[in-house]
Amino acid sequence: MPTAMEKRLGELLIEENVVSQGDVELALRKQKETGLSLGRILIDMGKASEWEVAATLGKQLNVPFITLSHYEIDKDILESIPEELVHKYKIVPVDKTGDALTIALADPSNIYLLDELKLLTRCQIIPVISFESDIKEAIQKYYPNQRGGNFEEALKDISDQSVEVLDQEQIGGGLEDVELPEDDLSLQADDAPVVQLVNLMISEALKMRASDIHIEPYERSLRLRYRIDGVLHEMSPPPKKFQNAIISRIKILADLDIAEKRLPQDGRFKVRAHNRSVDFRVSSCPTSFGEKVVIRILDQSNLQVRLTDLGFESTIMKKFEAEIHKPWGMVLVTGPTGSGKSTTLYSALSTINDPSKNIMTIEDPVEYQLLGINQVQARQEIGLTFAAGLRSFLRQDPDIIMVGEIRDFETAEIGIKAALTGHLVLSTLHTNDAPSSISRLTNMGVEPFLVTASLNMIVAQRLVRRICPECKTEIQPPADLLHTVGIDPEPGQVFYEGTGCANCTGTGFRGRVALYEVLVMTDTLRDAVISGAPTNRIKQLAIGEGMQTLRVAGRNKIIEGRTTIGEVLSATVEDTLYETPVPVDQNAMTVQ
Fold this sequence. Notes:
18 strands; globular
């Protein structure tokens, strides 16, 4: 039941115009189900920020707020509270003067905790408010052995872990009869510690906005890594002795065969976490010291389906929207694995989704469910390939078709014929840039005249990490480094980088933004393709026609202060043809 103090917090948030009455009522109802604090629920709902809740809570309790990252805490002060209490209650000692001990915590209204600390330390406790994420960052900083979730501590005090991620009714039961084919059966996949460890692993990954969890066995250790904003970060791993039980537990959730350890397997499961449903794809692969497991996190709440959120510049977005609203033709999105091609296609489909249109997709796998769109999972083993699905779609009276990837001539041929017969076809290719996609199609065996007749637009994209807004700092890079990305700095021009803070877990980056290279098929380019022009020539003409390359898109994001030079250099290659667009002689087809 919500306390009077928590109800008062809700009233204060309403008075400060942070949330509405309806938001508070919904949060109070959720609190009865979850037991979490009102402030935490409002933050998880996205209705209030950590700062707004902390400031209001401080005003309510007359407790000051501090930013822990601005303090350097002495070792003697850190030792004033037993380390296990720091992790158990998520608190940080900040200062000690005489018998007065200042403690930073997220919820100073917990008078029982303050009384317990007073008894244990025999000090007068002075509470101050700090962000929950700031406290976590400080604990990781001052207690480095506990970084990324302390699994040993979770085992010692497992009942106190507030990790309620996996809903057993949703992901299946029947674990009572499971037997692990291991020499040591003392650790079963459904033992409470093992279940809690997997829950903790998943919960931490969601909190840190990870897209993948890597569990890698070695001879004497177990490695745990999270991919955050496209980069793998090593975390504190579970004990090696739990390796087989943890992997078996994950395989049970994903409905995989736990007795089969010689062959790779793939599965998926869904959980209820932080008041939302999250899908997980699981892939296991045998290695020298056990099975490596990679869990892909498909969090619908992280899917950006609005084109304005993706990183398109205004002029490029107008071109993109114009092409995806055409009644027929083909739109291709290219780039390496993990470059956000699927997200761009989902955003396009959401933009053009309309009850008057029949939209069908065939994907491998179906990553996100989109309301109003018929999505089909490709199954190679039963003959349901992209080509077979496409062929079937043409008998389903479609208006718009999305194909997960064009991998072979058969898929390309059917897709192009669909585009020529009055359908809008969206798909992806694995190529380095937009112009080389044309050569890729012709190398598959598609006739150039069919490519030019069907193709409306090609979009090449890359993802770069976005500078954290909380620790964004002005810098002045060396002029030669700026010249490598095509920037000739003006006097007084400012550039930025992130210094690292609790908001970005010390990386200086939070989230990612896309770089786009958009090639719209014009008559000039069509003539060049039909005449057999090589990729280099097509790129020259496309730049002359106004195509912005990936490197130029990255340069613009640097100037806007959204990413760094290092990110752009790692994601793009130098434009060796032209630094600026050049005029094109339409008759001679030569660059002036």
